[in-house]
Structure formats: structure tokens, C-alpha cells
Structure prediction request, 872 residues.
Amino acid sequence: MARTIVKGVKFWALLALLAVAILGMSSCGGGDKDEGNGVPQVLRARIAGDPETLDPQKAGFATDISITRQLFRGLVYFDENLNVVAAAAEEVPTAENGGISNDGLTYTFKLRDGLEWSDGSPLTAQDWEYSLKRFFDPNLGGNQYYQSFYYVIEGAQEYNTALGTPDQPLTPSQSELASLREGVGVDTVDDRTLQIRLKAASNTFLYLMALWPGYPVKHEAIDSLGDAWTEAGSLVSDGPFMLTEWDHNQRLVLERNPHYWGPKPGLDRLELLVIPDETAAYQAYQNGEIDFTVAPPAELATLKTNPEFHAEAQLSTLGLLFNTGQKPFDDAAVRKAFARAIDRQAYVDLVAQGFGMPTTGWIPPGTPGYDPEAGQAISFDPEAARSLLAGAGYPEGQGLPAIALTTVSEDIGRLSAEFVQEQLKQNLGVNVEIELLDPPSFQMRVGSGEFQMTFLGWSADYPHAENWIRDLFHTGASGNLAGYSNSRVDELIDQAAAEKDPVASVDLYKEAQRIILDEDSVIAPIFHSISAFLVKPYVRGLVFTVTDGEIRGDVFLASPAISIASH
Amino acid sequence: MTAYFIRRLLWLVPVLLFVAAITFVLMHSVPGGPWDRDKPLPPAAVEQLNRKYGLDQPLWEQFGRYLLGLLHGDLGVSYRQSDRPVTEVIGDGIKVSATLGGLAMLVSAVVGLPLGIVAALRRNRALDYLSVSLATLGASTPNFVLGIILIVIFASTFHLLPTIGWGSWKQAIMPVLALSALPTAFLARITRASTLEVLNQDYVRTAWAKGLSVRAVVLRHVARNALIPVLTLAGPLAAALVTGSFIIESQFAIPGVGRAFVTAIFGRDYGVIMGVTLFYGLVVATANLAVDLAYAAADPRIRYR
Prediction:
């Protein structure tokens, strides 16, 4: 049998040799270095999932929005202080330059000369007319979430709701639909002039025009390709970058669009890698495969002192929402008692690990309408909380029905729920059950009002108080999960929307917020989050804003000031 | 033999139909739907979407339409990936997972089988102990732990290999190794056990007595017979590997079908859930059939009618 041993040895030796050879080869594999003239201007960032869509009129997720921001550009956009500035339009319409009519109902946008799509074909006012009307098409698909924000445009609501409601479905004919589409107040005056008519004056309309639904899409591409028009090679866009590669669930590559009207971006290329797992992303970051990633919560303590670590405030607030239609939270005194029993500072220290700002206000700093004094009446005070609860007829929690806190079974939801449970027990003597649901079950339950308490996290779609109050607390608003209704608040919101003076308008929202928090206590704001992420030191010139999406710094990724230094 | 084969193939139809029906009912009885978002949609919009995709119709009718589509090779569209056809969504994932799993299976067979045979031949000697220890270690280390160890060595310390993505051979090394450890150990152990059993058989003693070469005895008489029980287990093992590993795919950011499946379940992406389940059913059933056929090839005493 001696020969078998020899053979065995040979086999193992061969295997070992093979392993060495493989390792040796891999170590001389080429990097991404450019030969000679400098470093390739490529930014590699992580995204948490494949975009659901890159169609700007259908986009809704943070990832989708981040990417459409690079591919498309609307008539107006934001500057670094989030003021609205001219983009594809020559100037921002104002009353002074005649862009806004005296009654505030007609906006006229004058397009820049010589605008082109990324395929070199001309981009005209017709393209915007097509895109905006398409946005309200009831058969468009997508999630139809943002349409109602734009109902201030004449005829928009009529067209968008032409198919009726589930209880009362309507079946308009093709010609009726076509005439409703015609009725949407967006008109091409000439190739370079677009006019939009509103049904009521609005002081937030230009913000809305700077968002993704106002990005143009190419009619011909959609007609000939259908849903597949957003694939790489087919997607025609008008922004600083164009899509050159989309390997679904793996990566997207964006390259500079030579037909873009604006300043040349500092980056030649953006590589977006789909890495759902945060730890895997962090691993890849450490291994130098990506330049940019979210800081994993477990590593926050050790990363704080790392020079690559960034912490940026976000326009976002987390609060504990009470369902006004469910006992015992149909009583404002009980809601207030619960709101006063939560130590916000402790939440930030323990759950958010210091990355957040404790608050009793709902509208976050950085938004017109932010009020540092907001929610004084619901600040942390266990004494007051207990006496409020006693006053409501439940001394020491005696007589309260069973109470459940319904939340999502993800880490942060569970930790937050356990924290609140502990606080209510300690400060109010109330026992609360935690009900953990997976995201779709959670959304169904909360969406249909079958909950007592839950967490409401909100991030701004645009930097204005309206986005924080109207869509969540107006009677019957799509985001009004608490079933909240106060005619005074509705009045204030309606007045604010019609108010021409921006300062007066913001004051009305502040007053509405005061009633919602101090009087009705329908939500107990807990903290404003801070996003923690890592950026390699050789990435220069990134600008972060409070409205960044999935990719931090995405609002200004096309900036000429961004560069990749040698590394 | 041919008749048997055809009969077994025909049996696939009711089996898959059953799998489809069970999955369909289970998936629709879980609360929530594909339209749930970070910010909840207004109920009217949800109804609208349900109507567009026919989700407002009775379940049996939806199922009927699904089966009808299936006959034409139409698996529907993904509600979560802007209406991409399901065949395309899972097709991409299957290619990746099958390559990853196939490579892992190959590594396991190339390493595990010889390891088991050699261990049996050198029973209770150093080589045997080494092989058994390796096998125990491989079997008791979860693949993600091995994944981390590999990352620490090859990425964090020596910067030799990338930790994420799929497409180049460099990206395949670590996930394939991590994924193949368990099946390698498994194959080595059962190969060793069944080889030992065969070594005690009379015909092996006869073969030695005839003065056949070691090579002839081991390859023609021992290995061939020892591999029959191994085949029984190799079938399901291969099926499990090829259908994708969610954990390894997450750890190395590989766009495989395992990850697609889990994402689809959380997103209630009905079409993708159905497509992947049917694919799993098909692979497992086919693997079992292949094993039965391989028996006949390996052991002349086995005949199917």
C-alpha cells in the first residue's frame, strides 16, 4: 500500500501548490488605477437594494430618488442652502420677472437655449408638458404616493382620480380620459416656454417643481419600450449623469452626460453597488472596495473618533403616535400623560447611541417653521404625567385597558419599543405590551388604523413645514394614521396654504403644530436623527444637506468641486 | 428503464401543482401586500394597484390565471422591480446561485470523496485522524463564520480578494470555499464510512487475493460500490447548494436567487415568491430523479421497471 501514500502526498502537494498559485495570481491582479495622468474620478458608493424604478414620475424610495437626482434635472433645483434656484429654466419665476402672474395662479418657465437629452436630441417645453401630465395619469402605476402633493395644479386631481375610489369605481372612456389629460393646467407656449396654471396660489409650488416628479422623461422612449425604458442603454435623461450599466441587484454605473447644460461634474463616473447587508458594506469599505457607506450601529462607539466618520443632521423626526380612535387614547389627557413620561435624552443616549437630538417638537431644525419652543407642554415630567393620568381617571394606571405598542420587528423598532415600555412602567406605572410585526403586516395594520400606539418616523420630502403638518394631521390626509381631526388645525393649514406671505404662512403652521402637540398631544416627538456614515479621506468636496436620500450628499454629487485624490 | 423515467417525469406535474397551490394559499394568507411602503399609500391607491394587477379578484381565479400563464411560460411580473418579468428577475439569480453552488459542489466532490476514501484506506492512522478532524471542523463551523474567517485572512489582512460582488473569479473564491466546507466534510464522512464497509466485503478480499493493483482494487471494486450510499445524499446536497444560500449571498453581496427569495417574501412580491418556490420544487424533484438513475448506473443489481 506504500504507493497510495505517495499518491496521497502528491495529491495534497498539488492542491497546496494550486492554492499558492491562485493567491499569487490574485495579488498581482490589476487595481483601478489609471496609468500616468492622475487618479480616475470615480466614486463607488453602496446602495441598500436594487432601485425599484428609475422612472422619476414613479419614484418613491430613497434609493430611487438618490439615483434619479443624478440622471435627471428639472426646471428648478436647490442650492446648498436648499433655496430654489434655476436649473433647466433660465430663471426662477417670480412676480418681479413676470414668471408668476399677479393672482399667483400662473407660472411661466422660460427654458435655457439649446437643451438636449443625453442622446443629443432636443429637449423642449413639450417634453415637460408630457411628463407632468403623465405624472397624473391614473393608469401610470408606480405607487401614486406623491401625486396628491401636486393637486394644486389645475385639473391634476380630476385627471388623477378619474378611475374613482374602490367604493365608487368609475370607468371613463378613452376620450374622456384624453380630455381630462388635456385639462391638466400644463401648457407648451413655444419650444422654450412652459406655462403651469394652479387652482389656488401656493407658496410651496416651486419646491415641488424642484423634486423628482418634475424631471422630464422622453415620450418616444416610453412609447416604444414601455416599462423597459429605464434599462441601461435605453434610458435617456437630461441630468449631469447618464445610465451606462444596470446589472440588476448588483450594480449601476452612471457616467457623465456630455449633453448636460450645466457645469461639468467633478466625477466622471459613479458606481453604485447593491449591498443589502450593512456589515458586508462596512467590510467592503474597510477593504477599499467602496468609498462611502453607512456606519454600522454596532461600530458607532469605536468609529466616533475616526477621521473618516461623518455625522450629519437629517430632516427627520421619530415620534410616538397615539391612535385617537382607540381607547384609552381617545382621551387627550391620557395621550399627554404618556407623552410626558418619556425621557428623550435617555432615548438618544441609550437607543440612538448619542446620534440624535432629543426633542419635543415635530418640525425639525433646518425647516422653515421649526420652533425650538414647540411641545413644551409635553416635555418629560414624570410627576406631571402621573397626575395627568390620575386626572383622566386612571390613578397609577388603575383601570386602563390593555395597551399594545405596535412596531416593526427590525432592530431599531424593537429597541425603541423596549425603551418606551420601560419608561412607561418606570414613570407612569403602566404596563405596555410590545407587538412586533414584519414590515408589510405592520403597514397594513397601521394603515387601517388597527393599533393603539406606534412609532412614526418622518423624513422631509421638501424643506417646508407644510410637508410636516398638512400630509399627516389634516382631517382625512393620506398620512393621517392617528385618525386625528381638529377643525381649528384644518383651518390653519388651509389658510397657510393660501397665504402669500411666506413668513405669515410659516407662522400659521407653527400655530397648528402647537395645537397638535401641546393641546391635543396626538404625537410625542422623541428625537431628530443624525445619519452616521463613513467617507474615504481621498473623496474631496462632498456637500451634505438635510434632505439627502439614500446616498449621502446625493443632492450635490454633480458638483464640479468633487474630486478623488490619489490614494 | 425508459418507461420508468417517463413515468417519473410525468409525476413532476402533480407534484409541482401541489407545491404551487400550497405556496399560493400560504403566501396570500400572510397579512400585508406588495404595496406597503416606508410611507403608507392611501387606500384608494392600493385598490388601484390591486385592480391593475388583478389582485382584487377571488384567490381561485388568480390561481387559475397564474397556472394558465405558467403553461405559456409566463410567470407574471415583479411588483417590486418596476414590472420586470419574473422569469428575468429569478433567471438572473438562478444563474448566479447555480454557478456558485455548482462550484461549491465541485470543490466538495474533488476534496471530500478522495479525503473519505484515503481516510478509510489508512484507517486509524495519522492521515485518517487528520481527515476526520478536518471533517468534524468543517461540519461544525457555520458557513458564515468561515466566511468571516476568510474575509479576515484574505481581505482585511492581506488585501488579496474582494469581499463583495459577483462576476470575476476573484469574487468567487471566498464564497465558494465558505459554502463548500460543510458538504466537503459531509461527503468525506459518509465516503469514509461506506468505504470501510466495502473494504470488509468478500469480493474486495478476493480482488486483493487475485493480486490486482491497488489502483484497480480501489477504483473498480471499492470506490464504485462505496459511492452508492454517497449518491443518495449527494442529490439533495447538490439541490440545496444550487438553490442558493441566503446567508452567504448576503455576506458577500452576491445577487443570487436565495437573496431574491428572501427579499421577495419580505416585499410580498407574489410573482417572484411563486417563481422561486416552483424552481426549488423542480430542482429537488429533478435531483432525486437523477440520484435514482445514478444508482442504476453505479450498481448493476438495481433495475427499474
